[in-house]
Amino acid sequence: MVQNVAVGTRPRRFAARPDGKELSVSSELSGEVHIIDREKFTIAGNIEFLPPGVQKIDATPVDLVITRDGKTAHVTLNHAARVAIVDVHTRKVRGYIPVGLRSSGLAMAPDEDTLYVADSFGGGIHVVDVKDRKVTGSIPLDRTPSGVVIDSSPGRWTGIRRLLHHLLRTRVPDLVATTMKRLERLQ
Questions:
Q1: pTM for this one?
Q2: Which of 13, 61, 64, 151 yields a CA-CA distance of 20 to 30 A from 72?
Q3: Backbone angles phi, psi at 46, to 5 degrees
Q4: Contact status, residue 36 vs residue 42, Cβ threshold 8 Å
Q5: Which is nearest to 16 in space by CA: 41, 40, 37, 1?
Q6: How many other CB atoms are there within 10 angstroms of residue 73's CB atom?
């Protein structure tokens, strides 16, 4: 440990900007993401969330990912059942994507065109088209997921492709072709 930095109530997850200068930390019960300056170890700013038609108390950020170019962050808002789209540099929310019953964890596909969002109340993973800002399908599960991890390390595509193909073929047949084509473009 290098330094302690106090953030809001119940910090959940963090993501570093690709340039390493800032760390974003979700504070679930405070309803904010705090931005930490990694050189000074101080709070450089914060982002608050209030999707239309949602009470402030329900906008509870849990998970977040930042794109490779460092321009955009996607933040799950748990009880609000939304994913917020945030401009990293201005720290402004650019929009919200409705997702299931409770959006908890998320992961971004390596091509950054797709988000996979865990729905801890709906019992599934929702597939979100980033460009169109909408859910394009869902993968029902027998459990209540709280997170999603995509292992994109070298040599792992075979296992990921096999798992996704099985899940999609057996549960959501209309997503097989689209998802498999996206995976093949990445190889």
A1: 0.82
A2: 151
A3: -150, 160
A4: yes
A5: 37
A6: 22
Residues 6+ apart with CB under 8 A from 124: 100, 138, 139, 140, 141, 145
- The two tokens of residue 160 are 């990921």
**Are residues 39 and 58 in contact, defined by beta-carbon separation less than 8 angstroms?**
no
The residue to which tokens 């050189």 are assigned: 39
Do residues 96 and 128 touch, judged by C-beta distance below 8 A?
A: no
3-state secondary structure of 29: coil
* 113 Cβ contact list (under 8 Å, min separation 6): 129, 130, 131, 182
User: Taking residues 105-134, what's their average pLDDT?
Assistant: 92
pLDDT tens track for 71-119: 999 999 999 999 999 999 999 999 999 999 999 999 998 889 999 999 9
Q: Rounded to an integer, what distance in angstroms lies between the CA atom of residue 146 and that of residue 131? A: 24
CA distance 127 to 118: 9
The first and second tokens of residue 166, run together, are: 């099985």
Judge residue 46's burial from the number of C-beta atoms within 10 Å of its C-beta, 0-12 exposed, 13-18 middle, 19 or more buried.
Answer: middle
